[in-house]
Amino acid sequence: MSDYLASLIREDLEKLSEIVVDRAPASGKLLPGERRRVAILFLDLSGFTALSERLDHEVLHRLTGGLMKALARVVEAHGGYVDKFEGDRIMALFGARAAFENDCSRAVASGLRMLETIEEINGILQSCSPGGAPTRLSARVGISFGSVTVGPDPSGHLTAMGEEVSMASRLEETARVGTVQVA
Asked: Residue 164: which residues within 8 A CB-CB, separation 6 or more?
C-alpha cells in the first residue's frame, strides 16, 4: 500500500473515531453512520420503455426530468428525502434526516400521491401525444420500514443501507402496477 493511500485511510479512521467520541445525546437529528428506523420507498415507472421507443431521446430526457422533479416534490412535501434516481426509478427515505413518529404513514401517503401525480401527468401527455398514439405512464411503489444504517456515502450523499432497503426494492418489483405494496 502506498504511503499516500495509507495516510488517506488513517485520516478516514481518525474522522470515524471523532464521530464515535463526539456522539451527541439521543435526539431526532442524524449522526453519520447511525442505525435508524426508516421508511424506504421505491417507485418504478411502468410504460416507460414503450414511451422511450417512440420519443426522441431529447424529448424523453425533458419529459423524464420534469416527471422526476414533480415526484421528488411530492416526496419532499411529505417530509421525505430522495436518495437517488435510477433512470425511471426513485428511492426515497422517510426518517433518514430526522425521525418522526409517522415516518411510515408519510411514506405511504407520498407513494399514493405520487401515483395520483402520474395520473395527472397522463392527462397532459394524452393532449400532446405524438402521432395520436396513446401515451400512458403508471408506476408501482414498494415501501418497507425498519432498521437501516443511514449516513453519507463516499461522495457525501446521504443514503441508507441494510436489508430493509432490499425489501422495499423487492416489494416494488412485485407490486401490481398502480398500487403501493407495504411490508
From this structure: 38, 40, 144, 145, 146, 147, 148
pTM: 0.81
SS3 for 5? helix
Which SS3 state, helix, strand or coil, does residue 152 take? strand
- Give the distance, in angstroms, between the CA of residue 37 and the centroid of all CA atoms in the same chain: 16
**pLDDT tens-digit readout, 82-123:** 999 998 999 999 999 888 899 999 999 999 999 999 999 888
- Of 175, 178, 165, the C-alpha closest to 91 is 165
Conformation bin of residue 131: beta by default, left when phi > 0, alpha when psi is -120 to 50: left
Q: How many CB atoms lie within 10 A of CB 119?
A: 13
The tens digit of pLDDT for each residue in 38-83 reads 999 999 999 888 878 887 888 888 888 999 999 999 999 999 999 9
